[in-house]
Design brief:
Layout (H helix, E strand, L loop, with lengths): L6 H11 L11 H9 L2 H18 L10 H41 L2 H7 L1 E6 L2 E6 L8 E2 L25
Antiparallel strand pairs: 1-2, 1-3
Helix pairs in contact: 2-4, 3-4
Length: 167
């Protein structure tokens, strides 16, 4: 039951499936801003802002003098709309990047303590042993106690219900 427990088997599983840890290199704020800019809605808003700004700077050559006041008012409105949309996009990107940065920071702070301090009970070579959470590999049968947390990159849980019968 469980893994056979040999070191060759454990090494093979770590090479094939990877180790049970979160990559240590956190994303920089600039990387998070770049990810936020990849949102389709924000891209559409940026294109609309650029289009509005281009229209505000374009003055057709056939414009007569009596319509020049109207054209300058429309250009100012187009400029304000474009600036407002760009300001909105910048605010959304910065808020999204800051939220992602703070979530990542919260996630990584307890990770170092769990990696070194938390022991877990697994079945290897038909023996029940305690190992660090970072040493769990694919195929380990983990014995989870009530309300115990398992930190793993990929986790499959099979539940077995035991039913008492009168037979």
């Amino acid at each position: 039951m469980g893994l056979n427990g040999t070191s060759e088997d454990i090494v093979k599983r770590r090479e094939e499936f990877g180790q049970n840890h979160v990559p240590q290199k956190p994303k920089t704020f600039v990387e998070l801003v770049w990810e936020a800019l990849q949102d389709v809605t924000l891209i559409i808003l940026m294109l609309a802002a650029i289009f509005s700004l281009v229209q505000s700077f374009y003055h057709p050559p056939t414009c007569s003098k009596r319509h020049s006041g109207k054209a300058s008012g429309e250009a100012a409105t187009g400029r304000i709309e474009g600036d407002a949309i760009l300001l909105l996009v910048v605010c959304m990107v910065l808020v999204t990047a800051f939220n992602n940065w703070s979530k990542e920071k919260q996630f990584r702070s307890p990770q170092s303590h769990i990696k070194h301090d938390h022991k877990f009970t697994v079945v290897r070579g038909e023996q029940v042993i305690q190992i660090n959470v970072s040493e769990i590999v694919v195929g380990d049968i983990a014995q989870a106690k009530y309300c115990e947390r398992i930190k793993s990159m990929h986790l499959a849980i099979a539940e077995l219900s035991l039913v008492e019968s009168d037979y």
